[in-house]
């Protein structure tokens, strides 16, 4: 924690201080319309006198602030600008299940509330410093960490008796997610889990915002079981530690198939004012890699044999990596970051001993399916630039909970060299550029355009080229909700690493199986009409939507056929458990599918359940 700054002498008052705002007055504030909310955000972004940040609070946030003021006996200071911060107050909404959810009140016994000191050390504005709204906004973004918190609001309050003139206190109001919990993240397709993660975790170990868990993770063929530990403020020194790993087992016979692990430690850029960061990381994965179409293994037909070999798309992979890097950040308003990274990675794929094909089919499979076998030691440098402008939105991804969006341009350029003297099997160069631009649109909406290009240069040739462009539009709040649409185009060119792009029910075509289409080109369009959320039982928020998906994937542009589906869905938010929504979709395919030249009609309607919005 940085030492307090000596208080600056307050200037002479030029007018009588406005009266404080009581909890009752805050509770009685009217709710802005969508157009009024957009205009108020613009006024606050421009630091205009008409800005009233209290009117921008969502219902859950306002409710929490009112309760904190009542319990602490505080009133809001409507004019903190130019004043010196005095005392820091922290109030974390206890219990997790409150008066609106009394039936589950017993569950609060199993929750550990964040300690006041742990929240206080996250605050970027310290006693003795001038009130700085930019530091307040950045602190709120830091505290809104979905691992630990559903909401976080910082407000100015009147100091107690005896405080020097020109002083304002700071009140931090947060609400924990339920700490001792069974976390889940899943994708349910056609009645079968294509992805499932369950973790018995303490998300707020000892009340210090650290996560300790036993994690079960499953895909279509395997599952893993092992520990996970995340500490974002190691020993209170603003360092970060992440650790996970465990054995890998087959789903069908529970046999041991491999293992994986990952360890990282470093000092991240704690705030926009941070100048330096560093990181060290190591990982390994020894496992069988597979590709699926729905719940079945994708198959490969060797061109050197007359029949369809239907060879299962699976191979053994042994991969490990170590890396370290340092970042220098500077800038005010426009942020610049220079990065230097060294990584050493080894991957050694090989055909399984149970491979069912003959020698010719095996040679074809190795050439067309296995990724490049190599050890690569790469030293790379990168330059990133972006504008540090942010805006809060509501009812896009997380309903009534505030969502922070960074506005303006961002770009990053990376150049690297893989050399034998650095540990590589061969000499090569890599280059990448990627970025985007987000702008507010029609007051309460937003639009984003982005793209990227990467290439590997080896033996005088530009290979393994990947290009992508994307666009996303979020409409302003309409009479019934918002329209959200996203277009994504990707392509792989002169690939010598046997990479491919996949499209299906888990990443863009909800009416079709997982991995339904694949190839070197991919195009996806998704659009949803998302209704406003309504409060129902147990303080939960619910919303409905109608959606349309279209897309295709193939090796060549002229072979890319368009598949379409429509559907309806529900979204549910339990603010006690997570700031992310639960997702339930029912999709109706519109395009018949063909297998080996035979048209099979339409897929039946498909039901999916998952976590977070679909895109």
**CATH topology description of the domain at 23-175:** Ubiquitin-like (UB roll)
| CATH homology group of the domain at 23-175 | membrane protein fhac
Identify the CATH architecture of the domain at 23-175.
Roll
Helices, by number, come to 6
Return Rg in Å. Answer: 27 Å
Helical coverage, percent range: under 10%
| Uncertain regions spanning at least 5 consecutive residues | 1-14
Number of strands: 33
- Let me know the largest β-sheet: 20 strands, antiparallel, barrel
**What's the mean pLDDT score?**
90
What does this protein structure show overall?
- This protein is mainly beta.
- Among the domains are: 23-175, membrane protein fhac (Ubiquitin-like (UB roll), Roll); 500-615, no CATH class.
- It is 9% helix and 49% strand.
- It is built from 6 helices and 33 strands.
- It has helices at 23-28, 34-45, 59-72, 116-120, 133-143, 359-368; strands at 84-92, 149-157, 167-176, 180-189, 192-202, 210-218, 222-234, 239-250, 256-267, 276-290, 292-293, 296-297, 299-300, 311-312, 314-330, 334-350, 374-387, 389-393, 403-418, 428-441, 445-458, 461-474, 481-493, 501-503, 517-519, 521-531, 534-535, 541-554, 563-573, 582-589, 594-595, 598-599, 606-611.
- The strands form 6 sheets. It has a 20-stranded antiparallel beta barrel.
- A hairpin with a 2-residue loop joins strand 4 (180-189) and strand 5 (192-202).
- The longest helix has 14 residues, at 59-72.
- It is globular.
- The protein starts with 22 loop residues before the first helix and ends with a strand.
- Residues 1-14 have low confidence and may be disordered.
